[in-house]
Amino acid sequence: MLHSIQSWLLSGLGSIIVFLVAWLTKEYLLPYLSTERKRKMAKYILLIADEVTDYFLLKCPKKSWTKWIDQAVDKIIEITGVNREIALRAAQAALARKSKSKK
Predict the structure, then answer these.
(1) Quick check: 91 and 53 in contact, CB under 8 A?
(2) Which whole-number Å values give the CA distances from 44 to 27, 59, 68, 72, 90, in the listed order?
(3) At a CB cut-off of 8 Å and minimum separation 6, what does 94 contact?
(4) Which of 68, 87, 69 minimizes the C-alpha distance to 79?
(5) Which residues of 78-93 are buried (b: 16+ CB within 10 A; e: fewer)?
(6) What's the pTM?
């Protein structure tokens, strides 16, 4: 009798521990991994935007960036697959970093 109660108690305790570990993983580990993936994607998009804006700055040195920004945004969208708003912000951020480094 005591052996069956002890077995039942250990089984229940094991189930509670597994449930607790699953809940902690869902609450803390998965959001961290998702954030890390988004951070890596943002770095990738910014790197592509830097390369694309460098290309257009070299290709059209006498033109203002406002003349070729749409082409740069289209190229970033083609390479990364992000939406237009994100590509535009990435291109503008790349140009802002370039103008700061020139000063």
Answers:
(1) yes
(2) 27, 23, 22, 16, 10
(3) 46, 49, 50, 52, 53
(4) 87
(5) eebebeeebbbebbbe
(6) 0.64
Structure tokens, 91: 């291109």
Give CA–CA dist 15/9, Å, rounded: 10
Sign of dihedral through CA atoms 49, 54, 59, 63? positive
pLDDT digits (tens, 9 = 90+) for 33-56: 788 888 888 899 999 999 999 999
CA dihedral 66, 47, 56, 73 (to 10 degrees): -50
The length of the chain in residues reads 103
